[in-house]
Amino acid sequence: MIKTVSRVVCCVVFLTVIVAEQSTSVAQVAPINPGYSTPANFSRLPTINFTERPGNNSDTRRLIAAIDNANDRRTRLPGGGILQGARIVIRNGTYRLRGVKLQSNVHLRFGRDVTLLADESSVAGVSDDEVAMFLLEGGIRNVSIVGNANSRRVRIFGPSIPSDPLEIARFRAISVCGVDNFLISNLIINNRFTYFSTITVVTDGNSFVQRIDGAVPTRGTFTNITASNNSGGFGAIQVHAASRVRFRNIRSIGGVTLRLESGIANVHGIQDLSASEIFNTRGRNAVLFQPHAVRSHNRISILDAESTGSGFAVEFRNGFVAARDRALNRPEFTRRGRFNNVSVRGVTANFGTPGDAQLRFAHFRYLPQSALPFLPNLNTFIRDFRVNGDTLPGTPLAAVLDEATDYRPRLARATVRSVGFPSRLSQTILTRATPDRNTRADDLVLGYEELLETVEAMR
Asked: From 49, 119, 140, 357, which residue has the greatest number of CB atoms within 10 Å?
């Protein structure tokens, strides 16, 4: 079975592949990157069928072998030339997968009724510490993971959850690292309040402190992805490093939908990113900007970010330099990072239901006295820890929170809307200059930090 560390366990987590396999073209957000482009002669690729086997067995090694086979395929083209690769069609059924690495020129497609569960077994050739279901890494090119055109919703049965609420499963549906020209589309992922963002976009591990060709996700498109049941501390997609990537129709229930938060120091950063139709429900926000110790991110365009019952639709924050980054002893990782040339247009916050939002303690000062959350007792805090993470349930606050001083985004204020907010929360954009709205925030923060420290000591 998978090893556990610090009372963190791995449980079954599922990923359901649905919706439409469609044209890879994406509505223009800004003419700054092409995203994924269909490889030449894609329609001529041979097809390999991958089918369900009876029993609750691991399917990881079988799929890895199928990917090896697909990568080895050579197809002679009319008029000369050789086409490498294949499409693997995963037929209807339930599959258990973990640590599946794609290879160049391999494209995964799915039947109408497919459920993928996290493989809890020990798998030869896959580290027991590996928590990602799929990995795109190692400088591969021309790959895709795309749902079926006529898929119907599949009834999902939740995984077994540890009886101890302080045991948090560690899981990523997809880890995107060193890959060029990729498409990830048409997925519904039930995250079950696990540790880590559902999809992580970051440089390959050996290139954090040096530039290496092929180590950064480049020319990629993410479209039609929904992640539900996200812990307040995580969310759907986190981007640490990328170049020329685009996102469209990304939805998250809980947490943050699109985290442009470079929590891992690296010399690449985010370059040329565009996103449209980014939605968040009952979470922290739809888009979070926080650069941490990556010195410079450049050319970011966001069009249409919307929240319902969440703290904010868009949040701009300064980064911070973590002790682990300072320990790298490199000048570029000793100062807070910044975003350059950021454009945000079309921001909508729907008030939703009070108490649904996931707020961090830094947000408490913006709450009116009457809307301050009650500090839970220790037992309640522990009970809800898996869901809340480092947040507390609270009231939606505004469309935009702009606390950044290290960089200045271009926010089209005329396109920012707050819908259904009460008069006491009528301010659409909050900033550091916004006066405190209560006198109890500091006491609440102290109590909240004490609860966190107690819980961390127990874990």
From this structure: 357
Q: Which residues of the chain have pLDDT under 50?
A: 1-13, 18-31, 153-159
d(CA 379, CA 385): 10
CATH number of 430's domain:
2.160.20.10
Sequence-distant (6+) residues with CB within 8 A of 235 are: 197, 198, 227, 252, 254, 255, 256, 257, 258, 259, 283, 284
Q: pLDDT, tens digit, for every residue of 14-61?
A: 555 544 433 333 333 444 567 999 999 999 999 999 999 988 789 999
The answer as to whether 4 is a domain residue is no
Q: How far apart are CA 77 and CA 74, in angstroms?
A: 9
Half-sphere exposure of 118 (CA within 13 A, CB side): 29
Q: Are 186 and 146 in contact (CB under 8 A)?
A: yes
Say if 433 falls within a structural domain: yes
pLDDT of residue 304: 98
Residue 412: inside a domain, yes or no? yes
